[in-house]
Amino acid sequence: AQTVTQSQPEMSVQEAETVTLSCTYDTSESDYYLFWYKQPPSRQMILVIRQEAYKQQNATENRFSVNFQKAAKSFSLKISDSQLGDAAMYFCAYEAGAQKLVFGQGTRLTINP
Amino acid sequence: DGGITQSPKYLFRKEGQNVTLSCEQNLNHDAMYWYRQDPGQGLRLIYYSQIVNDFQKGDIAEGYSVSREKKESFPLTVTSAQKNPTAFYLCASLRNGGLLANQPQHFGDGTRLSIL
What we know:
The complex is a heterodimer. By secondary structure, chain A is mainly beta. In chain A, 0% of the residues lie in helices and 52% in strands. In chain A, the strands form 3 sheets. In chain A, strands 2, 5, 6, 10, 11 and 12 form a 6-stranded mixed β-sheet that branches. In chain A, strands 3-9-8-7 form a 4-stranded antiparallel β-sheet, with no helix packed on it. Chain A is globular. The model of chain A has no long low-confidence stretch (mean pLDDT 93). Chain B is built from no helices and 11 strands. In chain B, the strands form 2 sheets. In chain B, strands 2, 4, 5, 6, 9, 10 and 11 form a 7-stranded mixed β-sheet that branches. Chain B starts with a strand and ends with a strand. The model of chain B has no long low-confidence stretch (mean pLDDT 90). The chains are: A mainly beta, B mainly beta. The A-B interface holds A 4, 6, 9, 33, 35, 42-45, 47, 50, 91, 95, 98-106 and B 31, 33, 35, 40-45, 48, 50, 56, 58, 88, 90, 92, 94, 96, 98-99, 102, 104-105, 107, 109-110.
């Protein structure tokens, strides 16, 4: 079964600094999708960024970028110029076929002013 | 605006009681999903449906039941067989072929279920 592991339950960063959240996954598939979702205190799930496994280029969305290492099955999220509004739970997710998502345990990110 | 509506926002269940959580979407999405989230944990898939009148068990289906009689509706019943139902429940939807077409899952605002 596919699994997603986020080994950092909590992270903190100073405002305007850069932080990297880690994610590893386990799969025997060659084509798949990976996602980072943000869940603020409102509990809404907000898609931050997605990566298609067959694309070698790392995805980027404004201040958010990923470091996708397919051979190592690693998918980290880098947040540059951290802002107070970035404080949230961040979940890494893997698309496990049939358009189902498998989520990691989450990382709680705190931004220090 | 299109979206997913979950109701109620808060729900309380007595011992031995079945309760039903509502999920309605007006996005014309084919696929719908129910997830459970426990404190400090990620989302786990309970049930999903990719087409009307058809649904499949997810990873933690025991103690839950669903129906999909209409495209826009996917209610979740938490039965008395679910011994630890206290959690946050999220419903999501997706256009079929959506992930392949760069369309993400859309999520509702969730229902928090507690035991009285």
